[in-house]
Each structure stands twice: as C-alpha cells, then as structure tokens.
Amino acid sequence: MSGWVRVCSTAELLPGESRVAWDGDTPILVVNLDGDVHALEDKCSHEDYELSAGAIDGDQVECTLHGARFDLRSGEALCAPAYAPVRKFPVKVEDGAVWTRDDR
Asked: Which residue among 12, 25, 37, 80 is the one 20 to 30 A from 19 at the CA level?
C-alpha cells in the first residue's frame, strides 16, 4: 500500500469540480460533491476508458464511450453496459489540501 498522494489545494477543487491524481500507475478521479470529496478509479468497469472524460451530473459520472453511469459516492454501476462497480479510494482533506491513495 502506498502513501497519500496530494491531489490539489482545497481552493482548486470547488463544489462540482474534479481532478485526476495518479498513485503510481493508478489514475484516480477526485470530485467535490457539495463539499464532500470522493475518489474513484478513473477507469470504467465496462471498458478500460477514463471516466474523467465524461460528464458529471449531480452525484453521477457518465462514461463517454458507451454511456455507463456510476455513483460518485459509492462507485456503484447504475446502468448497462457496466455491471461491476468502480473501485472507490479513501480521501482526506488536511491542511488546506486534498489527498487520496490507492489502498489496494
């Protein structure tokens, strides 16, 4: 398990905004949902495609490749063609910065 990776300052991740951080080879999509920060692997579980390219609508992100939607809070797949969830990662906000890590 690796250590925490700094994503950005809290001022750079306002509600409704997102960033992609890298923990080694793992891309992590970090999203601020009305002040609650969540992190998911930036990879659709249906096709290996980055979710960060898709639109965020409320608490969901849509994969632009085939339209699969995922819950940003839980990683749950919400519609076909994705059936498996996306891995969720821990997030912490500390000293004015947002942090995440690949905790597998």
From this structure: 80
